[in-house]
């Protein structure tokens, strides 16, 4: 059974979902934009018989605290620091990292800092290579170069219901299996007063991630974490161009391109759960039969 908990980190309430026995290997699930741990609502019970699963909401997302941009430094460095403190607060010693979208730059900061804790990587549309930043990113790159009101205005469409729905529906095989609850829940949190400024701050901060790609790639090469790629190949935001380069740096990679879009769990959650079970059963010990 999934439990819904909150822990205080630096004066903020950090909400998280947790399921499975702590006697089993832990998977730390790090969500993307513009969602929350809600994106893992189906994956968690699918794996909870064999794994201990933990999925936090970052500050400004889901059910965690949402301080204003004047009260909290919305950068990827700071979000990674909060997640790092969260890991300590709930006493996780070793874990597999499931990273998706924003979860990748947050998770890779932590993995590169504490490589001995990371037992494996599960990568779902999470980028660590320049090849993965294509057309979608051009207006965001312009914002990195000039943080002007004009460039910010060009990004605000990404906070609309139409854009949120598009993230869930673009590139999928069958629209009828995509629950409208997904974009409805995400949009509820995006529409909160002050949240637009939070998202713009993080769009700007995303520009700090590509300069760290060489460092993360060096982490891959040096520590060789066993890695499972489960990537929605029709994703316009993080296309498959960003999935292939992992194979350059990692020797133990199980590589699956799925015929779906950005939020691959919505259409291929059962397949992803099966891939995770099979992959980790062969890489980790103490997984129940």
Distance N to C terminus: 19 Å
Structural class: alpha/beta
How many beta-strand segments?
Answer: 8
Strand content: 15-25%
Outline type? globular
Low-pLDDT stretches are none
Query: What number is the mean pLDDT?
Result: 97
Protein architecture, described:
With 289 residues, the chain is of the alpha/beta class. Helices cover 37% and strands 17% of the residues. An eight-stranded mixed sheet has the order 1-2-4-3-5-6-7-8, with helices on both faces. Strand 7, helix 10 and strand 8 form a beta-alpha-beta unit. The model has no long low-confidence stretch (mean pLDDT 97).
Annotate the secondary structure layout:
Blueprint: E1 3-9, E2 12-19, E3 26-30, H1 43-47, E4 52-56, H2 76-89, E5 95-99, H3 103-113, E6 118-123, H4 138-145, H5 149-153, H6 161-169, H7 181-190, H8 195-205, H9 213-223, E7 227-232, H10 246-249, E8 253-258, H11 264-283
Parallel strand pairs: 3-4, 3-5, 5-6, 6-7, 7-8
Antiparallel strand pairs: 1-2, 2-4
Labels describing this entry:
289 residues, alpha/beta, 8-stranded mixed beta sheet
Entry summary:
The chain is an alpha/beta fold and 289 residues long. It has helices at 43-47, 76-89, 103-113, 138-145, 149-153, 161-169, 181-190, 195-205, 213-223, 246-249, 264-283; strands at residues 3-9, 12-19, 26-30, 52-56, 95-99, 118-123, 227-232, 253-258.
């Amino acid at each position: 059974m999934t439990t819904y908990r909150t822990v205080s980190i630096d004066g903020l309430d950090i909400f998280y979902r947790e399921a499975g026995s702590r006697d089993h290997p832990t998977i730390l699930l790090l969500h993307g934009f513009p969602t929350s741990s809600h994106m893992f609502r189906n994956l968690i019970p699918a794996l909870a018989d064999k794994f201990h699963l933990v999925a936090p909401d970052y500050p400004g997302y889901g059910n965690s605290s949402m301080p204003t941009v004047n009260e909290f430094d919305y950068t990827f460095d700071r979000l990674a620091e909060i997640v790092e403190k969260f890991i300590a607060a709930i006493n996780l010693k070793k874990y597999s990292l499931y990273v998706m979208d924003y979860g990748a730059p947050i998770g890779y900061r932590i993995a590169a800092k504490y490589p001995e804790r990371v037992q494996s990587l599960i990568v779902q549309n999470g980028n660590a290579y320049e090849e993965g930043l294509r057309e979608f990113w051009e207006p965001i790159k312009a914002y990195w170069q000039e943080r002007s009101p004009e460039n910010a205005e060009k990004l605000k469409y990404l906070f609309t219901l139409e854009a949120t729905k598009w993230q869930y529906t673009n590139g999928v095989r069958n629209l009828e299996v995509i629950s409208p609850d997904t974009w409805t829940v995400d949009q509820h949190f995006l529409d909160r007063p002050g949240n637009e400024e939070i998202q713009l701050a993080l769009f700007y901060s995303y520009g700090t991630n590509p300069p760290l790609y060489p460092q993360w790639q060096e982490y891959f090469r040096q520590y060789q974490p066993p890695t499972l790629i489960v990537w929605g190949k029709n994703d316009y935001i993080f296309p498959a161009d960003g999935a292939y380069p992992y194979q350059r740096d990692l020797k133990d990679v199980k590589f699956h391109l799925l015929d779906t879009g950005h939020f691959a769990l919505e259409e291929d959650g059962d397949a992803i759960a099966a891939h995770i079970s099979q992959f980790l059963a062969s890489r980790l010990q103490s997984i129940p039969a």
